[in-house]
Design a protein that fits this description.
- The protein has eleven helices and twelve strands.
- With 306 residues, the protein is an alpha+beta fold.
- The chain is globular.
């Protein structure tokens, strides 16, 4: 008998389209391996979700991204239903999704983070929180949604703040020059370091998901010591949050003369993208793990935390 898998995708966050793409790719991989896949486009109607989960599947593959799917919300529902699910559990998902809380935990674990403060839109409209350049970002979004780099003599960013639609708090971080790195961690293994080279000046939503929007250099062409340190930071962050399955750590590598090659941990993604342009599949491939093997491994390790 084929093993039945419910695959959650879509949702209502700004990352809905990314999730649908991830879900389609993961469903193809699971079907190629003989699983019976039941895609479910998640909405806010719990009765509809419960109906879609009948008959009860063997496990749930979580291909959701963003609010509702990556922040512990759906994980809590699945814990109540006692349905094994992929990726991180309730607590790790909730902490990772709220960037200021995750930063505080990383700092307490001795990991290098960028200087940052949390401010309300009203406070930011009144005065700058620090000298530019700095980065303004939502505290609970992914895929670079709402992220803005504020440079000297840039006053237009306040227009965006005046119409802010991502909650009542905004994370402000000192801008770290240098190179964009990301590390995939699977279980207790850091798979590799990738350098991201966006075609534009910033690794925004378009650079992440448009075909040809960025180049992924795996392994990252950085000094050996920095490469090993990036692996170590990512694995330590994964453990500090209590992540399971796979996670992706985003870092900045300041290789400017003033920066001295220092690494900074920006955030952890507990539901990294699995689209045709996503980073984790590229890093896994470098580590000798094909896409189908990657997806099936996540499913085979599905469980509840409680």
């Amino acid at each position: 008998m084929k093993r039945s898998v419910a695959l959650l995708m879509g949702g209502w966050s700004p990352e809905r389209e990314v999730s649908l793409s991830s879900g389609r790719e993961c469903a193809k991989a699971l079907r190629r391996r003989g699983y019976e896949v039941r895609p479910i486009d998640l909405g806010r109607d719990l009765d509809a979700l419960f109906a879609a989960l009948e008959p009860r599947p063997s496990a749930v593959f979580n291909a959701l991204h963003g609010v509702g799917g990556e922040d512990g919300t759906i994980q809590g529902v699945l814990e109540i239903l006692r349905l094994p699910y992929t990726h991180s559990g309730v607590l790790a998902s909730a902490i990772a999704m709220h960037k200021p809380t995750a930063k505080a935990l990383f700092q307490s674990a001795g990991l290098p983070i960028a200087e940052g403060v949390v401010r309300s839109p009203a406070e930011l409209l009144a005065h700058d929180p620090m000298l530019p350049p700095f980065v303004a970002k939502p505290t609970n979004q992914g895929s670079s949604i709402g992220v803005r780099i504020v440079r000297e003599a840039d006053n237009s960013w306040r227009e965006e703040i005046s119409s802010w639609r991502f909650g009542g708090e905004i994370l402000i971080e000192r801008f770290i020059p240098g190179r964009e790195l990301t590390v995939a961690v699977m279980g207790e293994r850091a798979l590799g370091v990738c350098e991201i080279v966006p075609r534009s000046s910033f690794y925004d939503y378009t650079a992440k998901y448009a075909a040809g929007g960025s180049a992924h250099l795996v392994p990252a062409p950085i000094p050996h010591e920095a490469y090993e340190r990036a692996l170590e930071i990512a694995l330590s962050a994964h453990r500090a949050l209590g992540c399971r399955g796979i996670s992706r750590a985003d870092l900045r590598y300041d290789d400017t003369p003033e920066g001295g090659g220092r690494l900074y941990l920006l955030e952890i993604n507990t539901q990294p993208g699995m689209t045709p342009t996503s980073l984790v599949p590229d890093i896994a491939h470098f580590a000798g793990i094909g896409f189908d093997d990657l997806v099936c491994s996540l499913l085979e390790n599905a469980r509840c935390d409680g």
